[in-house]
Amino acid sequence: MGAEMSFDCGMTRKANPITQKGLLGTQLEFTPLGVAGAKHLVASAPFDMKELRLRHSSLGDAGIAVLAAVLPGSSVEVLDLRGNDISPTGVKTLAAVLPKTNVTVLLLSGNSICDDGLQSLCQALPNISRLEVLDVSCNHISGTGIRHLAHCLAKCRSLKELCIAHNDLGQAGSSSVVRALQALGGSGSGSSSTASLAKVDIRNVGLAPPDSVQLENLVRSSRGRLRVLGLLPSSVIH
Q1: pTM of the entire predicted model
Q2: 3-class DSSP state for residue 13?
């Protein structure tokens, strides 16, 4: 995979900013860029890097708009925007250009995209043909928002890893995800349009014991093709 899934709810900060530039990518983690910094980055760096890591860079929606203007046609494959105070408005701006990019890994953990932002993202997801990893953990997403994702999963043919951890989906929301995963694995032969989905992180989403049992059965029947993080221990179920 292009990157390992990890969630970042904004609860930790490093003491010193990390600033690195190289042939493969630009890494400005924990550097308070803001809008002015984003404009400077866009103006000074040719976007021929493979990785753009801007975790906790205080971009906000305005900074995302600056980046969105240069992402189409760029070489960026790994886009790390964790912990940047992105609201539904910023995600809508980003979603509008993502189908025109080469992004394979999209990390949005620790923002505030909420249900409306996830809906905007889901409208674009089926058209992001190369996307393999999506992390929307810790984003104040409820069962209402997650149902949009559940409905579009079958159209996300390239998606291999999905992280929705640490969102209070409630029983109805988590059940909709379970049903979507069951539909993807229903053929059992790997002929599903999204048979590539191999890892799902649903830790701390309000998974009910019956849904955990169904997912455990699904994982078992996949014969190692699917990993699900966050299943309830048997002691809780029984």
Answers
A1: 0.87
A2: coil
